[in-house]
Amino acid sequence: MGAAPVVCVVFLCGVLIPALGDKHSLYYIYTALSKDVALPGIYEFTALGLLNDRAIDYYNSQEQVKVPKQDWLKEKMQPDYWDKGTQSRRSKEQWFKVNVEILMQRMRHNHTNLHVLQWRHGCEIDESNGDVTFLKGISEYSYDGEEFLSFDIVNMRWIAPVPEALPTKRKWDDVPILNQYTKGYLEKECVDWLTKFLEYGEESLKKHFKPYVYKFAKKSTTNSSKLILTCLATSFYPKDVVMSLRKSNNSLPEHLLRSSGVRPNGDGTYQLRKSVEIQEDDTADYDCYVTHRALSEPVITKWDRKCRNCWSISSGLVGGGIGGVVVILLTLLCGIIFVLIKKGIIGIPGSKSHWN
Ligand SMILES: *[C@@H]1O[C@H](CO)[C@@H](O)[C@H](O)[C@H]1NC(C)=O
Ligand SMILES: *[C@@H]1O[C@H](CO)[C@@H](O)[C@H](O)[C@H]1NC(C)=O
Ligand SMILES: *[C@@H]1O[C@H](CO)[C@@H](O)[C@H](O)[C@H]1NC(C)=O
Q1: What pLDDT is recorded for position 308?
Q2: Is there a single domain that holds both residue 148 and residue 231?
Q3: Which residue range or ranges hold the Ig-like domain (predicted)?
């Protein structure tokens, strides 16, 4: 989000201006597993609220209570909000339990393997000059990481990319009021909550955390005449970051790099790792170039190729404890999301309508 245009600017001019707009997002992610996997931090059902990619509330099938993940949210919302939220999450949990089963039958899957049903829904806005502009609303379901159903907000209907989703699409589209509700929720209710949360969490959300930048050089395991140069930026917030690996001050094209993608650290901050393979006798100057909203100027760190299989800290600022107790859970959850699920899934809030 927002990173792509910045990357282009950097590649074209070698200049870094983090011209990131004032975009904000509120997403809820529900994840239901077909069975208990008996791993710490992994539950049959979890629900997570994310404001600007940071956890604000959490629910799992073990504690069965919706809890705040940010102090400001805890302070601002009445106990009533959490009670209602808990009730709503519990009924969602039941809804998911039933529907995972229905989907498994439809997919002709049995209980031997683990299956995952996810729903992701929420909205994004731009709040540039005090005006709130609705950017997008998303409601999508995924099964085992594949998109299963997604809501077309413009035409107010469900899109079924796989035949198994068609019966559900037809059923839901047959009740226009349900689709009107979903559209209304995404465009209005979600935006209202998002702006309210932004106001409540203003102080905390304004806190940005600089990336620490680390570099390492080590021998390739597959070819001893090659070196792998790696750059790691971590502990930054917000999520948008620009990292390029440069040879003689020129950014290497992305297709030559191996990138981890931006990943959550679990404490509300993020990390990104990129590496490139070079000839051991390559004498050009390589450096790692990182820019981020929290940095007044880019961090540029050079590789000293004499320093093999070692690493050094070149820049950083201690982040401090954002986020909360759910850290490990989130990390594991994200692991599941990444491994099992390429696309999120979303459904209709409060809908009693099952897949069949
Ligand atoms: C369950 O599904 C797996 C994978 O499709 C299959 O190998 C296995 O035989 C099935 N088990 C039963 C009891 O049907
Ligand atoms: C290692 O890479 C070099 C240069 O690409 C190549 O000439 C050489 O054959 C490679 N060695 C092995 C063991 O793959
Ligand atoms: C890269 O940029 C630095 C600082 O601007 C400069 O000192 C250096 O000579 C440049 N290196 C090359 C290879 O252009």
Answers
A1: 55
A2: no
A3: 211-301
The answer to whether residues 122 and 228 belong to one domain is no
pLDDT < 70: residue spans in the chain: 1-21, 305-356
Which residue, chain included where needed, has tokens 């009107």? Answer: 180
CA of 287 to the centre of ligand 3 (A): 11
Instruction: Tell me which residues have their CB closer than 6 angstroms to ligand 1.
Output: 110, 112
Question: Cα separations (Å) of 30 from 40, 83, 93, 139, 204?
Answer: 18, 18, 9, 11, 25
Residue 275 lies in a domain: yes
pLDDT at 355: 52
β-strand partners of 119 = 30, 141
- Ligand 2 in contact with 220 (CB < 6 A)? no
- Assess if residue 94 is contained within a domain: yes
Total of domains in the chain: 2
Yes or no: say if 252 and 244 are a contact pair by the CB < 8 Å rule.
yes
- Cα separation, 55 vs 5, in Å, equals 26
Query: What pLDDT, on a 0 to 100 scale, did the predictor assign at position 9?
Result: 33
Q: What is the pLDDT of residues 232-258, one digit of tens each?
A: 999 999 899 999 999 999 999 999 999
Residue 96 sits in a domain whose CATH number is 3.30.500.10
Dihedral angle of Cα 45, 77, 183, 178, to the nearest 10 degrees: 60
Host domain of residue 189: 11-205+337-341
Place of tokens 């050094």: 312
Pocket perturbation via mutation, ligand 3, pick of 246, 249, 303 by most ligand atoms within 8 A of CB: 249
CA 225 to centroid of ligand 2, rounded, Å: 7
Per the CB < 8 A criterion, the answer to whether 330 and 266 are in contact is yes
d(CA 180, CA 196): 23
Q: Is residue 91 situated within a structural domain?
A: yes
Ligand nearest to the CA of 277: 2
Distance, CA of 334 to CA of 328 (rounded, Å)? 10
